[in-house]
Amino acid sequence: MNALTPQHLVAVIGAGAMGSGIAQVALDAGHRVVLYDAAPAALERGVAAIDGVYRRLLDKGRIDAATHGERMARLRPAAGLDELAGAALVIEAIVENLEIKATLLREVEALLAEDAIIATNTSSLSVTAIAARLRRPAQVAGLHFFNPAPVLPLVEIVSGKATSAHVADTLFATALAWRKVPVRCASTPGFIVNRVARPFYGEALRLLSERAADAATLDAILRDCGGFRMGAFELMDLIGHDVNYAVTRSVYDAMYQDPRYQPSLLQKELVDAGWLGRKSGKGFYEHGPATQRPAAPVAAPAPAPARVTVEGDLGAASALLGLAREAGLALDQADTQAGQPHGCLRIDDVTLALTDGRTATERLLGRDGDGAAVVFDLAGDYAAAGAIAIAVADGAPAGALQAATGFFQALGKRVHVIDDVAGLVVMRTVAMLANEAAEVLRQGIASAADTDLAMVNGVNYPRGPLAWADAVGSATLLRVLANLAAAYGEDRYRAAPLLQRRALSGESFHAAAGAAQ
Ligand SMILES: NC(=O)c1ccc[n+]([C@@H]2O[C@H](COP(=O)([O-])OP(=O)(O)OC[C@H]3O[C@@H](n4cnc5c(N)ncnc54)[C@H](O)[C@@H]3O)[C@@H](O)[C@H]2O)c1
Questions:
Q1: What does the alpha-carbon distance between residue 473 and residue 470 come to, in Å, rounded to a whole number?
Q2: Could you give phi then psi for residue 119, rounded to 5 degrees?
């Protein structure tokens, strides 16, 4: 697998946010770069943006003046497409429109050598469809950078139907040489990241539309309990609702309206209102210079429980036992069968259990209930989590909230009490992310290792969804999905066949894929 070397000329078409960033990445790696844009003013702005980045690096002492000058000397703004002729690699980052991209690339292709590679930075269009409009589709691939390209490490190397293995291999090796984290995937809607990440936004929007809690609370739970770098609402405000909603719609339509990807009316309302997030000063949050993010309400202090009885196996929440002991709580182990799947904690007459996708009310009052009056959420890491989400059943004993709050506060956690929704916040999000990742794997779109690598490097998830499924247990996530499907009666929560198989066999995704992550 041979990477392009700095001797190879790289051409970038489109000098906007992505094109100028990609040009900078290639300059940083030592290439000569030709940058072209149909709008001369945009080209000028793109070159100035790159120069501005280097000037800031210079001011911070990260590069010296000679490096700055030398890199800018390797950048050639092109007045016409013919100046791209000697390029070994052309990366297109123009407007997201199939016909416009294909028309441009057909023209470019005619100028290039037979073995030149044509890459598109498209986020949502079919690489197969773009390639099919050119004369040498085997030479065409997707090279999907994330914004800002010089900062974010992930690059999805997207193979269309006709892309040659050699071209994909060369791009992979080149991205590595450019100190990026490349992953390989097939040309399907959303590729890896924009597809697997849909439930992160989708479930949060659904929870908000059901008024499970306000946006600040749901964000706090995703961050401080789930371990995500940002909550879904602050992230959507950052991305821009026009962009985020358009991506969701495009994946939804491309998947023939599969309800898994259904867009949210709540987000459409924001787009319609022009509340696009940070860029318009308002989205789910206000973004004025002096405005502060609203605080997420937490439960009032409650006394620590005198005794806690542990019944059965707490499964993915077992770490709570060590934390409770460390906190000096008196724990009794009830005499139950070892390995009992539905473990719980009892404090006086109150039963607490990890959510299994049912509401607490269902567990307390439902026909097949197990008496749990309080359900608590999955944490990314119970020891590190600063907060926990809980929900209390309708008809719960009077002291239920107090008992559960006192227990988690004794462990040093802030307690967010949310409405009694199925699957709470983190558990439901992780189950849906893992479910989507399992579909990507089963359909041969990407490997388990690449899928997880993409989510960790592309959207900063604390761990890959498949590694998360391995840690929590596929059987646990499958049960959550089955209960969500029963609660909503919607196809949206149908379990991926591969997750069902892993749940039965107990095989892990990564061991099964032969990857060590
Ligand atoms: N912005 C992101 O977060 C992001 C992330 C990954 C991929 N992408 C993809 O990258 C591409 C560019 O996105 P962007 O955000 O940089 O857009 P942008 O609007 O900032 O820049 C696009 C540039 O392309 C130029 N252009 C338009 N039509 C052209 C043509 N026919 N020939 C030459 N130049 C032309 C425009 O003048 C403009 O300067 C799109 O395909 C987008 O989907 C964007």
A1: 5
A2: -115, 145
Distance, in Å, from the CA atom of 421 to the CA atom of 211, rounded to the nearest integer, reads 9
Residue of 20, 31, 126, 144 marked active site: 144
For a substitution probing ligand 1, which of 20, 25, 37 has the most ligand atoms within 8 Å of its CB?
Answer: 37
Separation between Cα atoms, residue 201 and residue 269, nearest integer Å: 15
Residue 510 is a catalytic residue: no
Report whether 161 contacts 187 (CB < 8 A). yes
Q: How far apart are the C-alpha atoms of 88 and 11, rounded to whole Å?
A: 8
| Lookup: tokens for 180 | 């990026």
Active site residue 144: yes
Please spell the DSSP secondary structure of 263-315, one letter per residue: --HHHHHHHHHT--BGGGTBSSSB--TT--PPPPP-PPP-PPPSEEEEES--G
Helices (H) and strands (E) in the chain, counts: 21, 15
User: Is the separation of the CB atoms in 424 and 375 below 8 Å?
Assistant: yes
Q: Please, how many CA atoms are within 13 Å of residue 240, restricted to the half-sphere of its CB?
A: 8
Q: What distance in angstroms lies between residue 148's CA and the mean position of ligand 1's atoms?
A: 13
Q: Please give the number of the atom of ligand 1 that sits closest to the Cα of 43.
A: 39
Q: How many residues does the chain have?
A: 517
Distance 185 CA to ligand 1 centre (A): 22
In ligand 1, the atom with minimum distance to the C-alpha of 20 is 16
DSSP 260: G
Cα distances (Å, whole numbers) of residue 151 to 21, 145, 154, 157, 339? 9, 10, 9, 17, 46
Question: In a structure prediction context, what are the per-residue pLDDT tens digits for the chain, which is 517 residues long?
Answer: 799 999 999 999 999 999 999 999 999 999 999 999 999 999 999 999 999 999 999 999 999 999 999 999 999 999 999 999 999 999 999 999 999 999 999 999 999 999 999 999 999 899 999 999 999 999 999 999 998 999 999 999 999 999 999 999 999 999 999 999 999 999 999 999 999 999 999 999 999 999 999 999 999 999 999 999 999 999 999 999 999 999 999 999 999 999 999 999 999 999 999 999 999 999 999 998 888 889 999 999 999 999 999 999 999 999 999 999 999 999 998 876 555 557 999 999 999 999 999 999 999 999 989 999 999 999 999 999 999 999 999 999 999 999 999 999 999 999 999 999 999 999 999 999 999 999 999 999 999 999 999 999 999 999 999 999 999 999 999 999 999 999 999 999 999 999 999 999 999 999 754 443 3
Annotation says 124 is catalytic: no
